[in-house]
Design the sequence.
């Protein structure tokens, strides 16, 4: 029997619906459940053919468990090795190399020194930084956000240089991005599952959280195709099985705003019934596909084009 496990925290509606949907399909030799861990021993298999990870970004113990499971042949969704290495600034840098429009973005050293460092630890960092060059490049208004964060935590909208200095002083040891504001006419949140299934959802980030999927714009067929191509390209290069990409339309151009969401919101109350049903059904089918293809003792992870091309010394484009 091949088991599909869902690793999750306090989230309930999506994991429970996903387990129920997989089991309702009654695929011979496949079953699904919430992951159960009673011990983790080095080099011992987890007992799961597939694990869908919804929580290891917050629990280092789970990330270690998943890496061990992957080494023993579990197909982990998403690849825990890549997820450990990935962050938002790298993704923006990669996008500039593969032809995906992104906002002008710079990375900033933390306002306060990290623990166990002194000023001497930063002897290669110019002081002061070229703040004029940074501000001229990004412009204002701008957004400041953690380079490896998520969930809209510690995100600031900045209207001026003085506003930047005031807000940056609040960020303590966080490493932040300073990013151009894209004043958009339309905004979309796009699910990508299995590197091939895309659902493009009108989204209004300026609304209260529970109303963000209520938007009054509809993309043309041409825009849909354009956005789907961007979403697929991003996920093929990053290698995520399960991710969302947020696209803001400015002057007819879709800009990728946020596309490092390997455990994206899938709660019924926030995404709405239609989107929820699509995510559950598509995730169930993909998890079953991965379980049936999984081979014991082999690497069953998904690796992105960036890693594959880099290791083969093939140009990105």
Sequence:
């Amino acid at each position: 029997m091949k088991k599909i496990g869902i690793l999750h925290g306090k989230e309930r509606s999506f994991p429970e619906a996903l387990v129920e949907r997989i089991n309702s399909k009654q695929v011979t030799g496949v079953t699904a459940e919430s992951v159960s861990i009673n011990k983790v021993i080095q080099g011992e298999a987890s007992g799961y053919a597939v694990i869908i990870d919804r929580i290891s970004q917050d629990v280092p113990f789970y990330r270690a468990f998943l890496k061990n499971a992957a080494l023993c042949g579990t197909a982990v969704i998403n690849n825990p090795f890549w997820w450990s290495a990935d962050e938002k600034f790298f993704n923006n840098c990669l996008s500039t190399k593969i032809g995906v429009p992104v906002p002008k973005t710079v990375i900033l050293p933390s306002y306060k020194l990290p623990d166990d460092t002194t000023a001497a630890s930063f002897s290669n960092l110019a002081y002061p930084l070229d703040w004029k060059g940074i501000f001229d490049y990004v412009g204002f208004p701008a957004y400041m956000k953690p380079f490896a964060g998520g969930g809209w935590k510690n995100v600031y909208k900045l209207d001026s240089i003085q506003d930047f200095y005031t807000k940056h002083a609040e960020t303590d040891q966080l490493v932040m991005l300073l990013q151009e504001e894209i004043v958009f006419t339309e905004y979309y949140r796009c699910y990508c599952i299995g590197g091939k299934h895309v659902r493009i959802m009108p989204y209004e980030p300026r609304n209260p959280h529970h109303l963000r999927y209520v938007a009054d714009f509809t993309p043309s067929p041409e825009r849909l195709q354009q956005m789907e191509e961007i979403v697929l390209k991003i996920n093929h290069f990053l290698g995520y099985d399960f991710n969302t990409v947020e696209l803001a339309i400015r002057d007819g151009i879709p800009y990728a705003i946020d596309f490092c969401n390997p455990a994206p919101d899938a709660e019924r109350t926030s995404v709405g019934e239609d989107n929820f049903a699509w995510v559950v059904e598509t995730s169930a089918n993909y998890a079953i596909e991965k379980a049936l293809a999984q081979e014991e003792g082999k690497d069953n992870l998904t690796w992105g084009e960036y890693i594959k091309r880099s290791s083969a010394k093939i140009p990105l484009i």
